[in-house]
Amino acid sequence: MVQTDRGDVEIFETPADLAAGLAQLIADCASFAITERGAFYIALAGGTTPRAAYTLLGEEPMSTEINWDDTFIFFSDERCVPPGDPQSNYKMAEETLLEHIKIPPHNVHRMRGEDDPAKAAAAYDKILQQDLGENPRFDLILLGMGPEGHTASLFPGSLPADDGKTLVAAPYIPKLKSHRITFTPRLVNNARRVAIATEGAGKAPMLAAVMNGPLRPDLYPVQLVAPTDGELKWMVDRLAASELNT
Ligand code: 6PG
To answer: Which of 104, 156, 206, 236 is the most exposed place for a label (fewest CB within 10 A)?
Structure first.
């Protein structure tokens, strides 16, 4: 583990080791939160990196070790597509994890990507306040990092305005020619712990820029992730870490 002023960095030899480490982190956070507070609130990341970790959680022994009755699953962002669309982050989580575990359906909160984006974001914002209070504090928020430095659906040039209260926004992303639904930095940074999982040589230049370069969250939105009273943990494989000053 390398400690930096931009979060702790754990480097794994291979993507498989990273997946095992991420799955174990989730299981450990769940066990601690349920023991301490009787519930575990997690927000899943989308994209491809977390697939392998979710798959491990959906298999024995982890699938039966975690107390899913007291686990509440949310999503840190979603594409504006129906849940059955191959692009859906929910669909990815459903295929790898949700359909393999005994979790009460009402414990899983899907962002409705099929609805009007602004309405879907507002509805999710309301659910978060109903379930976690007006200042929601997740036990664990999972994120990834895009090659251009985005995280969740916080993209350079398309950051939602920080009005100090919005938890979930629906920015239009010009390069994607689409809206997205996303947690805002305010919500992310209120978490007890944020884990950013990043792998592959393709992410190495951006990871080095984000960790070792100037603070430019306008260019690299993942630099907005800085929990105010919580831990930021980067979980990266050797290839993604290959340009880091470690
Ligand atoms: C999404 C994700 C996004 C993702 C990064 C990394 O909806 O695409 O939330 O923020 O985490 O783009 O994606 P990969 O894991 O596929 O590299």
So the answer is: 104
- How many domains, the chain? 1
Residues 26-61: pLDDT tens digits? 999 999 999 999 999 999 999 999 999 999 999 999
The residue ranges of DSSP E strands in 76-177, in sequence order, are 77-79, 140-143, 168-169, 172-173
- 149 domain-assigned: yes
Query: Quick check: CB of 46 below 6 Å from ligand 1?
Result: yes
- Residue 149 sits in a domain whose CATH number is 3.40.50.1360
Q: Please, are residues 239 and 13 in contact by the beta-carbon 8 Å criterion?
A: no
Convert the pLDDT of each residue in 183-214 to its tens digit. 999 999 999 999 999 999 999 999 999 999 99
Q: Which atom of ligand 1 is nearest the CA belonging to 45?
A: 9
169 forms bridges with which residues in the sheet?
182
Nearest CA, atom 13, ligand 1: 47
